[in-house]
Write a structure and sequence with these properties.
With about 250 residues, the protein is α+β, with helices and mostly antiparallel strands. It has 5 helices and 8 strands. Helix 1 runs parallel beside helix 4 (about 175-200).
């Protein structure tokens, strides 16, 4: 029997030839294709990494430029504000020009007379007044009961809020960092003005409150809240003032 021509042998030989062809020809082609595909993917990954790195650098550069611009704007605003405000304060009083009609130890009811409908009495003995001003947004007058007389004990001038200013000007709302810079700029400007007018502050607290003594009568405190003006007098002096007021009122017919 001729095994070489046997159908089974022929089939086996044919199958073996196909396997050899697949292994020696087809597989390398697919392997090369896969290698090429992997190479292309790796190249794309590296390109993306490079692009991301470039983007990160660009973002970092833009952030630095923005910060530099914000600092420059804050410095210019500080200079402008200083020029606008420095003449509003007199060496003789810490009360800003336009708000000297009512001082400490004056009749508390006078606040309502001066500000009329703008005066908003509050529970607890104080009157809030909204004002339109370059530096301040409101004035708050606090009450002192003095031998049946109501006097002004101290006054708070609240600094304008940068967010409110941006809304009024239809400008973009400042970021948290920008808000901090703008508020600090206002405080520093006011502190510089007071140093020029009244000398170095007598105290600076740990929470950044600057306290000035003016004419040995007023204490002026500058902080993030604004400007507080109060008398330097002691409790005994207040009692003396109240006694004098009582005496004057009793002498009236």
């Amino acid at each position: 029997m001729d095994w070489k021509n046997h159908p089974l042998v022929i089939a086996c030989v044919s199958c073996a030839s196909t396997c050899v062809f697949f292994i020696s020809v087809i597989v390398p082609i697919y392997e090369k294709k896969n290698i090429n595909t992997i190479g292309e993917l790796e190249a794309k990954i590296e390109l993306l990494k490079t692009t991301n790195n470039n983007n990160d650098k660009e973002i970092s550069t833009l952030k630095k430029s923005k910060q530099s611009l914000s600092n420059e704007i804050a410095q210019k605003n500080e200079k402008i504000l200083k020029l606008q405000e420095e003449e509003r304060f007199s060496p003789d009083t810490p009360f800003p020009k336009g708000f000297r009609e009512i001082g400490v130890f004056q009749d508390f009811e006078k606040v309502k007379e001066v500000y009329k409908d703008s005066a908003k009495p509050k529970k607890g003995g104080w009157i809030h007044v909204d004002i339109i001003d370059q530096l301040f947004s409101s004035a708050t007058y606090y009450q002192l009961e003095c031998k049946k007389h109501s006097l002004v004990s101290h006054v708070l001038f609240q600094l304008n809020d940068p967010i409110s200013e941006a809304i009024k000007a239809s400008a973009p709302i400042p970021t948290t960092e920008e808000l901090s810079n703008l508020r600090q700029s206002k405080i520093e400007t006011l502190v510089k003005i007071f140093r020029e007018k009244y000398g170095q502050e007598v105290t600076k607290t740990e929470d950044d409150r600057y306290i000035f003594k003016v004419k040995d009568f007023w204490l002026a405190e500058i902080s993030e809240s604004g400007l507080v003006i109060a008398p330097t007098v002691t409790t005994d002096k207040i009692d003396q003032i109240c006694a004098e007021l009582k005496s004057k009122s009793e002498k009236k017919p």
